[in-house]
Structures are given as C-alpha cells and as structure tokens.
C-alpha cells in the first residue's frame, strides 16, 4: 500500500506541474502579443508603416548607402547638360570646354546594398502636390539644379515654371504640382545689419525662416561659407555669440554654435508628421593635393576618381560636428552622408571650366557628382 500511495502522489504532482506550466506559457504568449502590438503602435507613431525614422544616422538597416566605391558605368550620365534649361554656367563644364568626358561615367556602388536608379517620373508621382526645399549655400544650388535636370530628363515635355531670385527660387513641374524650392542662406543663422555693421548672430534664426515651414521635404546644408575669411568674402563684419560681440572666432566653434541654433529651430518648428528633414552633409574641396598623395596638384586636370572606399586625407572635423548636433536633436533628421564618396571625386569639379576664369575645386560639374547625391536622396526616401 505504501508503494501505491507514493505512486499516486507522484502522478498528482506531475499533473499539477503540467497545468501550471501550461498556464505560464499562455500568460507569456499573451504578454508577447501585447508587447508586439505596443511596438507596432510605437513604430506607426514614429514613422508610419513600421519604418524607423533616423536621428543623425545614415540608414534604417544593415544597408549603408554611403560606404562603397566608384565604378565605371556606361549608362551615365542621367541627362545632357545642353538640354537642361536650369544649369548655371558655373556648373556647366562641358559648355565651357572641358575636353574629357570620363568623369561623367561613374556610378556609386555601395558595399552592402543596391541603389535604385533614379526615376524622375516616379519621383513626381510619389510627391504629387508636394513641396521640396533645399536650404543653404551654393552647394544647395548645385544639388537643386541637379535634381531639376534629372527630373526634366525623365519628363522632357512636362511644362515647368522656373523662377530664379534671391533668396528664394523655385522650379514647378506643373502637371504634377511638384515644386522644388531653393532658399539661399549660407550660414543658416542670421546676418543682421546693425549700427556697427553686418553681424553674424550665432543664436538667431528669424530672417526668412518662415519660408522653411510647411514644406513636405527639407534638405539643409551649411559649411562652405564658414571657411571664408575677409569681410568681403565672408559677408559679415562681427560675430555675435550670446552677449559677446567679436570680430572673429574659431570657425569650427562658430559652426557648432550656429548649427546647434539651427537644430533648436528644427525641434521647435518642424512637424514631423508632415515634413521629412535631411541634412546634406559636408561637401569637400580638392585644392590641396597632399590630401590624396599628390602634393603639387589640385583638382585641375584630374580625370579619374580615387580607387577604394577611404580618402587618404581622412575625415573632416565639420562632419563630426554635424553628426553630433543631429544626434542631440529630438527631431529625426536623416544625414545624407555624402562626404567620403565626394572626397573620392577629385575629378568632378569645374576646375578651370566654370566660365569665370578661375579654378573652382569647391563646386561640382553638372551632370556630375550632385546627381549621385540626388540618387542617394531618392534611395533614402524609398526605404
């Protein structure tokens, strides 16, 4: 009898453990479903459709659009400069006699993903009735004109309205009601006229910034002018930094403070349910050949990109400031990190073919490198 009692006790114990285990599993499954639903709700609130929104980062997944190399591509360029009515002479290198054409024949190949080829008509259909604005300096102009040409080549018979003014220019594709705006403001922060002269105010964005509001897509850029020196070239006489007024200061420090003010303006004024925000990244120059191991050279006469995926001259300090400011913001801002891939294109500048008689190793020929910037913008918007 003792043995039977023990066996019965063991059977009852096993039965109780099985019931409890099943209840635990059911409870865990129920919790998992609630957590999953909560995550879906959070993702939808953050970006819609389960897509992550970025904050100073380059990609939503393992695909890094900006790590890769340049490869020869016979299908390039996207358009013929002679048939695009939007290109300024300073970017129209072929018009002003650049003899080589190979610089037009390179496409960017990321290491970890495929870049979709730009489709101007698809872009117009997706952004029908929308407003896109580039805000910044002449590198923004470079990118704005490039996008206009790329779209125009896809729909050459579509009527357009093109208005070139200062500070606000626009290009409208009438059939699709899509307008590309350009707002020229090289420092993003204000330059105000005071009794003492022109003052670059690192803590203020008021002049014209209302024009940036209520856009569907904003692409900002700044840095080029922060390196200018001399009152004529830089466009200001004094810098206001809080309560301090000075004739000059460390330009990286000034850029950091000015860009921080811009970030605060974005956080306070941009509705992310309506507007997607990009920062164009730092566009490099090629005046010092020692950066790519040709000490006596500039961009003049360069006919090929650098091979590989790293630039011998290293990263730019201004790019680190951009990343740091974007990471500190509440608003998700996508970093269009074009710096390294552009550093590799020592061959893509106007050099002496910009029509003004000088050597330009700051801007870029059109067609040319800014077309790749726009293709990567197109890819990022599609992800």
Give an overview in words.
The chain has helices spanning 2-46, 120-126, 138-154, 231-234, 251-269, 317-328, 339-343, 369-382, and strands at residues 68-72, 106-110, 131-136, 160-163, 168-173, 178-184, 190-194, 197-201, 217-220, 238-241, 244-246, 276-279, 333-335. The protein is 32% helix and 16% strand. Helix 3 (138-154) crosses helix 8 (369-382). The model is unreliable at 1-60 (pLDDT under 50). The chain is built from eight helices and 13 strands. It has 383 residues and is of the alpha/beta class. It has a seven-stranded mixed sheet, with helices on both faces. A four-stranded mixed sheet has the order 7-8-10-11, covered by helices on one side. A hairpin with a 2-residue loop joins strand 7 (190-194) and strand 8. Belongs to the PC-esterase family. TBL subfamily. InterPro entries: TBL, TBL_C, TBL_N. This is PC-Esterase. Residues 1-28 form the signal peptide. One of its GO terms (cellular component) is membrane.
Summarize the structure.
Keywords: Membrane, Signal, Signal-anchor, Transmembrane, Transmembrane helix. By secondary structure, the chain is α/β, with parallel strands linked by helices.
